[in-house]
Amino acid sequence: MNNAMCVVIVTLAGTLIAGCGQPANPKGDGAGENAANITQSLADARTEYRAEWETFRREAAKNIANSEKELKSLRQKMAHDGSRLNAQYDNEVTLLEQKNRELKKTLDEYNARGQSEWEVFKKRVQHDMDVVDTAMTEVSRKIQ
Q: How far apart are CA 105 and CA 98, in angstroms?
């Protein structure tokens, strides 16, 4: 058994020594292909990110514009109503208008800083838009 072990070790050592100095890929172009694939993958990821950003930006801008229209409509209803509760609702609508302007500014000023920051930005803006929509619906319900 001891001799068998020696034969295996000597065979492995010989194979290792004989293999040294020879390229792993006889063509020698594997690294270049890998680099090209990586470069293409990065370019594809950037293109996908830009498309996702543009879609999100358009949809968010549309949502913000719709919120602006709805808030103007709420103001008009309040003006025609003349209720004493309008002061309370006026403050709520003013806060919603301010939040809507902040959302628009945030969207306009966003600069791409990488995928992880994009995900955080997208979630935050979507959350803020949802908050404005929900609050607007509640105020609208109260006014009618």
A: 11
**Residue pair 53/103 in contact by the 8 Å Cβ criterion:** no
DSSP 41-101: HHHHHHHHHHHHHHHHHHHHHHHHHHHHHHHHHHHHHHHHH--TTHHHHHHHHHHHHHHHH
Please answer whether residues 96 and 131 qualify as being in contact, where contact means their C-beta atoms are separated by less than 8 angstroms.
Answer: no
* CB distance 78 to 86 below 8 Å: yes
What are the contacts of 120-124 at 24+ separation with CB within 8 A? 122/56
Q: Could you tell me the mean pLDDT of each successive run of 10 residues in the chain, 144 residues long?
A: 48 54 55 79 82 92 95 86 73 94 94 83 95 92 80
Nearest-CA neighbor of 104 among 51, 53, 49, 65? 65
Residues 6+ apart with CB under 8 A from 104: 61, 64
Q: Tell me the whole-structure pTM to 2 decimals.
A: 0.68
